[in-house]
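If you are new to this repository, start here. Below is one unmodified record pulled from the training split, so you can see the exact layout before writing a loader.
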Amino acid sequence: MGLPVLNGTRKSLTDGERLDWLRLIRSENVGPITFHRLLERYGSAGRALEALPELAAKGGARRIRIASKTDTAAELEQVAGSGAQLIALSEEHYPPLLRQTEGAPPLIAVIGHPHLLIKKALAVVGGRNASANGLGLAERLARDVGAEGYLIVSGMARGIDRAAHEGAIDSGTAAVLAGGTDVIYPKENSDIYQRIVDGGAALSEMPLGTKPQARHFPRRNRIISGMARGVLVVEATQKSGSLITARFAAEQNREVFAVPGSPLDPRTQGANQLIKDGAHLVQSAADIMEILSGLFQSNLEEPQTIENIDENVTPTSPGDVDAGRGAIKKLLGPTPIAVDELIRRCQMSLAVVSTVLLELELAGRLERHPGNQVSTIGEL
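And here is the target side for that same chain:
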């Protein structure tokens, strides 16, 4: 169940399409994966918005909150007023490797220089409570890899993230934020934020004014890894959020790099474990370039543009969906199951299964997990 694709060049949205895309992703129970499934099924965000109430009702919801045109138009004005741009997944400056990932954000707000986001990229992450040696090494590695033409991507956290941004200020760096692009977190990074924006870019999928919460950081981390061909971890404890980024990188088929550290220092235990699990050991930028240069010389293949696909959309038969809904629900439960396995067990078409899952998700009764797995929320 991949993302809808079309042949052709990158497509800019019209003002009306951008409004519809934003309304859809801001509507209740519509996450990035659901957004793409809806676009695939209905051909445009506008048609998907019209279908939401009926889909949610069939999934068991009494009603669903759909973002209003007024609120969405106001958000678009706020984005423009803040100096940011709202870039759609189908558009030219959307990060090309992020576009390939499952659950790629349909829209990202970018402030600074969006054209830098199409550069080949390396993500550099690590602990907030880093050692002086770790900070210096992260800054040097970011500077040296940046000098090779790479955009350095990180999360603008304390410690290693900030050091990576510092090292790549002159060559180009992008900060992926857990909150809105107008919310600087932590506050002491106000100075580096301004320098990043002046010469690089800051981006987020979250609405303006959103203050970072714990649940936002994994979402941010999957964007950091998704933008880059490799993720470098410099100092991370066994419970570091950097390991979440590394896990996303592995799931997204990215390269994982790690700097080894003393077995006596708890700040390096996570990175050391990554190396034991197969991450590339890094002592200098040359170790990274040896891997990444070969990958980019092989011309990584990108999918075609995801666009509004108004033509040739084949609707699923309501009768087929009605007939299959009960059987599909019986196979679902609180334990995640792969969608492919669900299709195999119920012996129904991809289109029918996809529609029933959409109904349940829009009703708030289905949760999606990495690896195209789903589980129920409560009893169906």
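Two things worth knowing about this chain: DSSP finds 14 helices and twelve strands in the chain. The first helix runs from residue 15 to 25.
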